[in-house]
TrEMBL record:
Protein family: Belongs to the class I-like SAM-binding methyltransferase superfamily. Cation-dependent O-methyltransferase family.
One example GO MF annotation: S-adenosylmethionine-dependent methyltransferase activity
Provenance organism: Caenorhabditis angaria
Name of the molecule in the record: Uncharacterized protein
Example of a GO biological process term: methylation
SUPFAM superfamilies, alphabetized: S-adenosyl-L-methionine-dependent methyltransferases
Length: 231
């Protein structure tokens, strides 16, 4: 069975006191976020893939600092990352969240987020393979218009998502790629050979490091957050 690292583990149950301490002095959650996190951890399948709260707070900080208005959220799941970005956006901001299957969002996210219509109205959810959605945005002339993006869907496509997102970001825009340490496995040769998801993430990390279109840093934060700023 394929290895799946837990993003949420970084903050809630990591045995390393340094990780817990940093997460504690980073994470700020709205009551809606706490409610959706509780609901997801309690009942959704694969709840360990829920975005790490400290990473979401860090992303919100960027959106607020840059006064971002247009956000891409690749991999909706129950909607906790889309909710974070919506809370950080101004009233006329929009999060385009995309997932191949929006059932978890409809079941867990929508009933909770819709209690706050001002936030809910900022989230547009698209059910389709994310590559198709991103290609449609490029064909629609939206290149160079997005302020922030979060890549957190299927790891095989990380390189493809990154390349499309760089096209869609405006100059100075920021992308976060989640799970870029893959539970530490990207550092182990055996996993790079035997785990295709691990190899795909490692390849994307190298591409970002060498990419002249962005300035970047791979942070040991959450499950590894690769942060890239478009030149
Ligand atoms: C790790 S979860 C996203 C977690 C979410 N960002 C959060 O913070 O809780 C990954 C999601 O990617 C979706 N996904 C997988 N393959 C996809 C694809 N080809 N296109 C779009 N979404 C995909 C899955 O259905 C799943 O909901």
């Amino acid at each position: 069975m394929a290895f799946i690292p837990s993003s949420i583990k970084s903050c809630l149950s990591n045995p390393d006191p340094h990780v817990n301490y940093s997460a504690k002095f980073t994470t700020i959650q709205d009551p809606l976020q706490k409610e959706l996190q509780r609901a997801t951890l309690g009942k959704a399948k694969e709840f360990g893939t829920l975005g790490a709260p400290e990473v979401l707070t860090f992303g919100e900080n960027f959106i607020r600092a840059f006064k971002g208005k247009k956000v891409l959220d690749i991999g909706t799941y129950t909607g906790i990352s889309a909710l974070a970005w919506a809370l950080a956006l101004p009233d006329d901001g929009e999060v385009l969240t995309m997932d191949i299957d929006l059932n978890n969002y409809k079941k867990f996210g929508v009933p909770i987020i819709s209690k706050h219509p001002e936030t809910f109205k900022k989230i547009k959810a698209v059910e389709a393979p994310a590559l198709e959605t991103l290609d449609e945005l490029i064909a629609d002339g939206q290149s160079g218009t997005f302020d922030f993006a979060f890549i957190d869907a299927d790891k095989e496509n990380y390189e493809n998502y990154y390349n499309r997102v760089v096209t869609l970001l405006k100059s100075g825009g920021v992308v976060f790629l989640d799970n870029c340490l893959w539970g530490g496995r990207v550092t182990v040769e055996e996993h790079l050979e035997n785990d295709p998801l691990c190899a795909a993430i490692h390849k994307t990390n190298r591409i970002i490091f060498q990419d002249s279109r962005t300035y970047s840093a791979l942070l040991n934060f959450g499950d590894g957050t690769h942060v890239a700023f478009k030149v």
